[in-house]
Amino acid sequence: MSTQHSRAAARLLVAPSVVLLFLWMIVPLALTVWFSFERFNLLMPATREWIGLTNYRFFLTDPAFFAAILNTLLIVVGVLAITIVGGILLALLLDRPMFGQGIVRLLVIAPFFVMPTVSALVWKNMFMNPVNGLLAWLQKAVGMAPHDWLATTPLFAVIVIVAWQWLPFATLILLTALQSLDEEQREAAELDGAGAIARFRFIVLPHLSRAITVVILIQTIFLLSVFAEILVTTNGGPGTDSTNIAFLVYAQALLQFDVGGASAGGIVAVVLANIVAFFLMRMIGRTLEG
Amino acid sequence: MARRVTVTQKLGFTALAWGVGMLLFFPILWTVLTSFKTEAEAVASPPSFLFFDWTLENYTEVQHRSNYVRHFLNSVVISLGSTVIGLIIAVPAAWAMAFQPAKRTKDLLMWMLSTKMMPPVGVLVPIYLIFRDLELLDTRLGLTVVLTLIDLPIIVWMLYTYFKEIPGEILEAARMDGAGLWAEIVHVLTPMAVPGIASTLLLNVILAWNEAFWTLNLTAAKAAPLTAFIASYSSPEGLFYAKLSAASTMAIAPILILGWFSQKQLVRGLTFGAVK
Amino acid sequence: MTLRSVLLGMSSLFVLVSAAGAETLTVATVNNGDMVRMQKLTGDFTARYPDIKVEWVTLEENVLRQKVTTDIATKGGQFDVLTIGTYEVPIWAKQGWLVALDKLGAGYDVDDLLPAIRSGLSADGKLYAAPFYGESSMVMYRTDLFAKAGLTMPAAPTWDFVAEAARKITDKPGEVYGICLRGKAGWGENMAFLTATSNSFGARWFDEKWQPQFGSAEWKTTLDFYVKLMKDAGPPGASSNGFNENLALFQSGKCGMWIDATVAASFVSNPKESKVADKVGYALAPDTGLGKRGNWLWAWSLAVPAGSKKTEAAQKFIAWATSKDYLALVASKEGWANVPPGTRASLYANPEYQKAAPFAKMTLDSINSADPTRPTVKPVPYVGVQFVAIPEFQGLGTAVGQQFSAALAGQKSVDDALKAAQDLAVREMTKAGYIK
């Protein structure tokens, strides 16, 4: 159906987005690549010079580097696991008949609207603090020793906070998908004598697969660069237990003001992100095709 | 609902759902409650839930110290502005991708999304230098531009997945009638696409409203939105939970209320092609 | 709405219009209590100088430092007055990024500034930043708990005494912890405390040739002492406690002792916020008899970036905010106890202040006993008590702080943490070109 004419028109229409994004990507990227080959500390402009690959060598051999990659992946996987499992359960629940469904929905989606910095501050100070926090108080009330979230399980604490923010998003998408499931199909299965688990396994879950894919894709984009939550709560520590790539680059850029090192880190992060994106597309592209 | 459910079951679901709902909402509720406490009460143990001396002193203090209205307006202008500009650029692109797919369309989309994966802090200094030279530091215009570019990939993608659901036959029919490209967009496509555009708009206003890296690092006094407002109440020397809670409540409330009122719109297009 | 309020509204509109042609100063400051008070008193300044308007950018310390540093280093020119600390001033002055403050006016009385503070803010005899408030660190302790345990705190305690007392007072089931110390990773958090403490144990960051010294016996003693003490007598979750967390603990009666910034004294003795306001005693930071005490020196100060086009107006503002008149102004509005401390000798000679602030003498003694130019027992090539005034320190200090915080949390042994710290420091100093 596409004619020469309309194809040209289509190019014209796509062009602004592509050109803008390309500029947005290429200009800073070019500068960043350039800086990454320099000894360039903002605080010592006099020492600026070309040093080749030294910045890359230091970033890649940083003792925290592999921990940071692992932590980045753990955060992505952990949050995805919680939000998808939790989101499916919540969607199944919200799909049931109940009183005040509208209000419950409002309660469930609310965390999505909270600024990441605010939610991190609130969780850290008012909930996870082992002395003044509400969770500690609950534990003490039932006679347990308070759990020190940010010191003993820092990465898990970060995952919990981030998952709390993204659970509503997953729930909403999954719920919409669930509601589009053909009622007759379910009932037919019910009549066939399929149990609840079988029904879920063979009818509901396949139906949700596209929605799950979408949740994975969108959330991964945001989760790869989780940063504010770590900065506010654990500052990457104790040790490097909750340092991810974004935080490692931050430490170079805004603690040491080492623009060269941060640029090298940024480039490494882009490469890693593209590797993830590639695999993601391989895994997910097919599901979305259909 | 065709399924028959006993009242007991319905009550059970109600109780369970309300319990989970309250649990998820509790941190926000607790923040709001804390904002009405004194600083000493905010750290008191055991914590008091409702029976404390309710006070407005935190709100008075915040009003006194910060120009809330200015921060609020900056947030509105920046988040709405960036989303609207983004839509203007993205609608044609998404339309073309959806109805005139080329071989590389999927790759192009993926490339657009991948621009979002770079940690922003890695390019802070280059951007800062560019902004300084263009005199865009601490301007709403500058922030609007940055947020437009940041959200553009998501906007294009959301619209693309939504547009793809629109059956091509309708367009064919329109074309048969001899409608031109422009008429096709205005009269046929737009009405069908409005729900998708609305939900894209909402989601991106939310994302832009909550963006806390660029808005904090590229502003000083004039263009600083609510994220900077929050940063002036977090972690000073001394007790701060109650005042922080008041400031947080004021920063979240507008977007929360907007989100609640428009959640139906939001959900309708938030499917990213997940529902067929 | 009454006629009066309408008129008032209109006249204020007028003022706004007439002020539009005036110079506008953008002041960047930290959201601590004393600065917030300054912001509230802006009216007094603009009344004196009607042709100057003031815009405030008040932010949390870390965010502020990032923004201000990025801006000054790239010459962004967004601010006219900066609030910076004794860490930044020497580094930035050396780069020529700060305007020398030579137009503070005749009545300013520079010689009234405390010598320790003034020397930290000067380079080549010129003042590059004016102190807004100064602080050292000291021991704050609960007189009631000490009396109950039959202990008497000397005015200048040793670390051994402090450790023994802390263990004695601790009553974990009753949620009373003998000592609260900083544990949250950060160059200005746990490393401020630990670096100052290591000075009193005879340790140092670098030798004269910039070789990192974390392998030394002194550092091992310091960190061992700290980790063991906190394990026996510290609160749970100490590895995420900074100034604020400890303040909240102390104010709610859960700490027997707390060694931290002297400004904390005005918080813990304020009955509106603190449950233990009338039961707090003060002592100098502890030592081990080697000649250095474990107290630091810091001054939040106001400076003018070289990029500002309004240096004259900016200096007028700085002169106002750090003057004797300003201290009197705060005293008249909020009482002497709320005056920004630690900058002027005349304040400590003022009997009214001595009466209102029981911690005044101990604060002054602590400040006077710190020496940023000779901070350690053994000689060092750097300036700074609780920091090393080189640009690399923020990053390095935080990385080392993370290791020590992990040791405190029990995730690493003291030896491993020190080894990691040494490796990090060698790496960083090599990269930066100190170690050839």
3D architecture notes:
The complex is a heterotrimer of chains A (290), B (276) and C (436). In chain A, α1 runs antiparallel to α13 and α3 crosses α12. Helices cover 74% and strands 1% of the residues of chain A. A two-stranded antiparallel ribbon of chain A has the order 1-2. Chain A has a domain of 178 residues: MetI-like fold. Chain A is built from 13 helices and 2 strands; from the N terminus they run αββαααααααααααα. Chain B has 2 domains: 51 residues, no CATH class; 209 residues, Orthogonal Bundle (MetI-like fold), CATH 1.10.3720.10. Chain B contains 13 helices and no strands. Chain C is an alpha/beta fold. Chain C contains 19 helices and 10 strands. In chain C, the strands form 2 sheets. In chain C, strands 1, 2, 3, 6, 7, 8, 9 and 10 form an 8-stranded mixed beta sheet that branches. Chain C has a two-stranded antiparallel sheet with strand order 4-5. In chain C, α18 packs antiparallel against α19. The radius of gyration of chain C is 23 Å and the shape is globular. Chains in contact: A-B, A-C, B-C. The interface between A and B is large, with 107 and 95 residues.
Low-confidence stretches of chain C: 6-20
Order of helices and strands of chain A: HEEHHHHHHHHHHHH
Output the CATH topology of the largest domain in chain C.
D-Maltodextrin-Binding Protein, domain 2
User: What is the total tally of β strands of chain A?
Assistant: 2
What is the CATH architecture assignment of the largest domain in chain C?
A: 3-Layer(aba) Sandwich
Number of helices of chain C: 19
CATH topology of the domain at 65-242 in chain A: MetI-like fold
Strand content of chain A: under 5%
**Tell me, what is the CATH class of the largest domain in chain C?**
Alpha Beta
- Order of helix and strand elements from N to C terminus of chain C: HEHHEHEHHEEEHHEHHHEHEEHHHHHHH
Question: Helices and strands in order, then pairings?
Answer:
The complex is a heterotrimer of chains A (290), B (276) and C (436).
Chain A: H1 4-36, E1 38-39, E2 49-50, H2 54-60, H3 65-94, H4 101-109, H5 116-127, H6 134-141, H7 149-152, H8 154-179, H9 183-191, H10 196-223, H11 228-233, H12 245-255, H13 259-289
Antiparallel strand pairs in A: 1-2
Helix pairs in contact in A: 1-13, 2-13, 3-8, 3-10, 3-12, 5-8, 8-10, 9-10, 10-13, 12-13
Chain B: H1 7-34, H2 39-42, H3 57-65, H4 68-99, H5 105-114, H6 124-133, H7 140-164, H8 168-176, H9 181-210, H10 214-217, H11 226-231, H12 241-261, H13 263-269
Helix pairs in contact in B: 1-12, 3-12, 4-7, 4-9, 7-9, 8-9, 9-13
Chain C: H1 3-19, E1 23-30, H2 33-40, H3 42-48, E2 52-59, H4 61-73, E3 81-84, H5 88-95, H6 115-120, E4 122-123, E5 126-127, E6 130-142, H7 143-148, H8 159-169, E7 177-180, H9 190-200, H10 217-233, H11 243-251, E8 255-261, H12 264-268, E9 280-284, E10 297-303, H13 311-321, H14 324-334, H15 345-349, H16 351-356, H17 360-369, H18 393-409, H19 414-431
Parallel strand pairs in C: 1-2, 1-3, 7-8
Antiparallel strand pairs in C: 3-10, 4-5, 6-8, 6-9, 6-10
Helix pairs in contact in C: 18-19
